[in-house]
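For practice. Supply one:
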Amino acid sequence: MSERLLYRAMRLLKLWLPVILWAAVILSSSNDAFSSDHSGEWLEILFGPGVPDFANYLFRKATHLVVYGILGALAWRADRRRFVALALCLLVASADEWRQSETAARSGSAWDVLLDLIGASIAVFIVIPWIRARLAARRT
C-alpha cells in the first residue's frame, strides 16, 4: 500500500470513526432500557421522588436535540457539506425510531425524527458557524 493511500485511509478513519461510533451509541439506546419509565427512574434517583412526568418528557426531548446535535456536528466535521450531515442524521434518526417501534416499552415517532433533525440543524447551521466565527475573531 502506498504512503498516499495509507494517509487517505487514515484520514477517512479519523473523520468518520467518531460518526460511526456515535451513531452506534444512538442505535444501541433504541431498546427498552431507555424507555420513559427508566429515564423517570433515573431522574428520581438524581432529584428525589416526585419528579413530574412533564420534566421527564422535557428531559427526553432535550436529549434528542443534544444527541443529534452532536451527531450532526461530527458528520459535518467528516464531510463539511450540510446536506450530507443532515441526510446522515435523518438516516440514523429513522433507523432509531424504527428500532424503537419494534420494542415492547417504546414507540417510534415521526415527530422525534423531526426533533432529531432540528437538533442536527441547530448544530450545523448555528453552533458550528458561531464557534468558527469566535475562533476566527481570536486569531485576529
User: Anything to note?
Assistant: The helical segments are 3-28, 36-47, 53-79, 82-101, 110-139. Residues 3-139 form one domain. The mean pLDDT is 94.
